[in-house]
Design a protein that fits this description.
Largest sheet: 5 strands, mixed
Number of domains: 3
Helix content: 10-25%
Radius of gyration: 22 Å
Number of strands: 14
Shape: elongated
Mean pLDDT: 93
Low-confidence stretches: none
Structural class: alpha/beta
């Protein structure tokens, strides 16, 4: 059975360059679900916001039968390219608000940046794929990864394959994909462990600071969990400008 699939928008990022923008054909000799069919082209199901089967809205669980005389055209849309035909037939519930995320082991710097923006980010450098998928499902967290096969796991609802390799570009990409700009609240979380920061008296942390820091700065914050101390040092103005520029990118 020959089935044609047309991937819209950024979904064709997963296809060979020669096949982008065109219907691709898959020969399927047995009954299969649309989820399995889509993923056979390398496109993880959490990236797909809507599907149609012969121009009728369909679900991931929709089955197609291997009948010789039947013609199947499947079309797949990402969130940012939904057409009027499928706008009311989203395959996934709205993302968690406020956003909560879990990141794979390859995205440690992205995790730190997102925490600096105030997002609740779960990250460890020893997460297994199973732990990542289970955490995403159990805690309703958006899973960000550089391993697209991780996103094939059925329990994952909200997930995204991060295309960029530069951490600053990754931040922009993720904020754009999940429309996070309005939720940015910089410098409220510990970049190291994700816990919230609290303002503390200078005297209470003085013994942990260098003399020049004590001389030039008066406002200090401490992580509730790991007790790391923060202050508005020389990097603060640069980071604040970056955060404000990021907020302005909301479209």
């Amino acid at each position: 059975m020959g089935v044609q699939v047309l991937f819209h928008g950024c979904l064709d990022d997963f296809l060979p360059s020669s096949g982008r923008g065109l219907p691709v054909t898959q020969h399927t000799p047995r009954r299969t679900s649309l989820k399995d069919l889509v993923e056979s082209f390398g496109v993880p199901h959490p990236e797909v916001a809507a599907l149609t089967l012969n121009d009728h809205p369909a679900a991931f669980e929709t089955l197609i039968e291997p009948l010789e005389n039947d013609h199947y055209l499947i079309r797949a849309w990402p969130v940012r390219a939904l057409s009027d035909l499928v706008m009311g037939h989203a395959l996934q519930p709205p993302r968690p608000r406020p956003a909560r995320l879990v990141l794979d082991v390859h995205l440690g710097r992205l995790a730190r940046y997102l925490r600096l923006l105030g997002f609740d980010v779960c990250w460890r450098n020893d997460f297994s794929d199973e732990e990542l998928a289970d955490t995403s499902a159990a805690q309703n967290r958006i899973l960000l990864t550089r391993d697209r096969r991780l996103l094939y796991r059925r329990q994952i609802v909200h997930g995204y394959f991060v295309r960029a390799t530069d951490p600053a570009q990754q931040v922009e990409e993720v904020c754009r994909r999940f429309e996070l700009h309005d939720e940015i609240a910089g410098f409220k979380r510990c970049a190291r462990c994700n816990a919230l920061l609290v303002k503390v008296d200078k005297a209470s942390v003085a013994r942990r600071l260098e003399a020049r820091t004590l001389l030039y700065y008066n406002d200090f914050y401490k992580c509730k969990k790991c007790c790391h101390v923060y202050w508005q040092g020389s990097h603060f103005a640069r980071m604040s400008a970056w955060i404000e520029a990021l907020k302005q990118q909301a479209a």
